Amino acid sequence: MDAGSCNGCEIEIASIFSPTYDAERFGIRLEASPRHCDGLLVTGPVTRNMAAPLRKTFDAVPQPRVVVAVGDCARDCGVFRGAYGVEGAVSDVVPVDLEIPGCPPDPAAIVRALRGLAGT
Questions:
Q1: What's the predicted TM-score (pTM) here?
Q2: Is the dihedral of CA 114, 60, 32, 94 positive or negative?
Q3: Residues 6+ apart with CB under 8 A from 82
Q4: What is the DSSP letter of 2?
Q5: Domain locations in the chain?
């Protein structure tokens, strides 16, 4: 879920499904509905307009669920810290289980972190 990012992290997340990284071979897939997910990848600082949709999406993911904050902005608001339209980091809005640093994080780092979380 993009909570207010610049789209840099989304480009890197899309890359993990390319033939180079092939995250699906590890059981990592994108799903259209949060009701079909085991976890939630969140990018960007959470803007004031996206705080409620993030909470709603979080509530729609069945338990047990994990939340992954992808990128520096999701972790601590990055360069957007203190901006008037920013609610806060992802962990300020929903509980976070894993943070992946970087601006944006490298696709290999994303795959490594998700594999570690999944134990694959």
A1: 0.94
A2: negative
A3: none
A4: B
A5: 8-118
